[in-house]
Amino acid sequence: MRLFVALDIDPDIRKRIAEFRDQMRALAPEVRWVGPETFHVTLQFLGETERLDAIRAALEQVESTQIPLTFCGAGFFPNPKSPRVFWIGIESDENLPQLADCIGTALKPLGFERDRGPYKPHLTLARAGSGRPRPVRGERAAPGLLAVRIKVEGLPQLDFGTMTAHEFYLYESKLTPKGAQYTKLSRYPLAQQLKAD
After folding, report:
1. In-domain check, residue 82
2. Burial track 67-95 (b if 16+ CB lie within 10 A, e otherwise)
3. What is the residue range of 83's domain?
4. Residue 118's pLDDT is what?
5. Which CATH number does the domain housing residue 124 bear?
6. Sheet holding 159-165, edge to edge
7. pLDDT of 131 strictly over 90
8. Which of 28, 66, 79, 193 has the highest Cβ tally under 10 A?
9. Would 104 be classed as within a structural domain?
10. Collapsing DSSP states into helix, strand and coil, what is residue 43?
11. Distances, alpha carbon 107 to alpha carbons 1, 3, 8, 189, 192, in Å
């Protein structure tokens, strides 16, 4: 099984991002555009594993509070001059990186390592080549994504809305000829934040 841990996105925000994606898609038809039904905020990618029961048990131990998320702005990996991944930015409070850290800590005894460096939340819209943030040898920037970058630079600040994440999920990813298909396997609720009097 190919697994990852992520937050889901509210339908209204998903719709607004999908409409923006459709506008940009015409500028770069040669790259792989992510389907709106698969939009999510990755907390940790696990890859191929058969340790489903152990992963579920580890994630049951994760404690965190509900998380505000604002979807705004856009950017490119590895950088705007050589774009191969196009993404929407995500702003939140300290609870989002803390949740990613808690998940990483819970899964580390099972042999799953977090990506090096600070957690950088984003929502991927399009990929070219390998789709990895760091280039694979011989990979070049996608010309269509350069056109997308020029278009985005001329737009006012992008704002797709704000939501509160009430839970996170363990997903299975199945690769098909039509792209990845995601299935939620388990749900993990986040505690309500206590309001100060």
Report:
1. yes
2. bebebebbbbbeebeebbbbbbbbebeeb
3. 2-176+183-189
4. 85
5. 3.90.1140.10
6. 32-33, 122-127, 85-92, 67-77, 159-165
7. no
8. 28
9. yes
10. strand
11. 16, 12, 20, 17, 24
Token output for 127: 């990929």
Whether the pLDDT of residue 135 is over 80: the answer is: no
Asked if residue 94 has pLDDT above 70, the reply is yes
Domain count along the chain: 1
Alpha carbon 144 to chain centroid distance?
A: 22
pLDDT of 197? 43
Q: Is residue 196 part of a domain?
A: no
List active site positions: 40, 122
Distance, in Å, from the CA atom of 26 to the CA atom of 36, rounded to the nearest integer, reads 16
Question: Looking at the domain assignment, is residue 197 inside a domain?
Answer: no
Which 8-state DSSP code applies to residue 38? G
Helices (H), 2-76: 11-25, 52-60
Mean pLDDT of 95-111: 96
Q: Rounded to whole angstroms, how far apart are CA atoms 47 and 116?
A: 16
